[in-house]
Amino acid sequence: MISGAIEILTATMTLAAIGYAILSLVAARSFVRSARQANSTFRAPVSVLKPVKGIDPEMYQAFASHCTQEFASEYELIFGVASLDDPAVALVRRLQAEFPQRAIKLAICPETLGMNRKVSVLVQMVPHAQYAHLLINDSDIRVGPEYLKCVMARFLRDSVGMVTTPYRGRAHGGIFSRIEALCISTDFMPGVLTAVKLEGGIRFALGATLAISQRALNDIGGLEPLLNVLADDYEMGERTIRAGYEVALANEVVETSVPAYSFKTFRAHQLRWARTVRDARRAGYAGLVFTFGLPWALLTVVASGAAMWSVALLVLMVVARVAQALAIGVGVIGDRQVLRDLWLLPIRDIHAMILWICGYASDTVVWRGEKFTLSDGTLTPYRA
Question: In the listed set 262, 288, 313, which residue is the last one of a domain according to the structure?
Answer without folding.
Answer: 262
